[in-house]
Amino acid sequence: MTSYHIKHITRYRYASPVIDCANQLMLYPIQDAQQVLKKHELHISHKPDLEEFVDYFGNRIGVFSVIMPITELVIQSDVEIEVMPAILPETNHSIRDQWEKLT
Question: In whole angstroms, what is the distance from residue 30 CA to residue 41 CA?
Fold first, then answer.
C-alpha cells in the first residue's frame, strides 16, 4: 500500500474587483477498492458557504459563490490517500485464454 499527500491550489487573480463569483469544484477524491481516502480538507479564501451534491455519475461536486468585491480567489485541496497495488492480468496465457477468463 502506497500513501500520498496531494496539495492542489487554484488561484484566480482579477485585474479589477469581481462582485459575484460563482464556482463549481471537482476536487473530491474517489474512494473505492483501489484507493482509500484518509483525509480531505478544502480551504477557500473568503470562507464562502459550500454546498455539495453527488452528480448522475456518482461524483461529488461542490458549489459556492463569493458576492463581495474580490481581486483574488484561492482554492486549496489537501488530500491524504492510500493506494492499493493494482492486480494485473496474467500475461503468460494466450490472448484468447485471457479473454475467455474475462467473459
Answer: 14
Q: What is the pLDDT of residues 47-87, one digit of tens each?
A: 999 999 999 999 999 999 999 999 999 999 999 999 998 87
CA distance 24 to 20: 14
- Residue 80 corresponds to which cell in the numbers above? 491524504
Residue with cell 496474467: 90
Query: Which residue in this structure is represented by grid cell 496465457?
Result: 93
Provide the domain limits for residue 13.
2-102
pTM listed for this prediction: 0.79
Total domains in the chain come to: 1
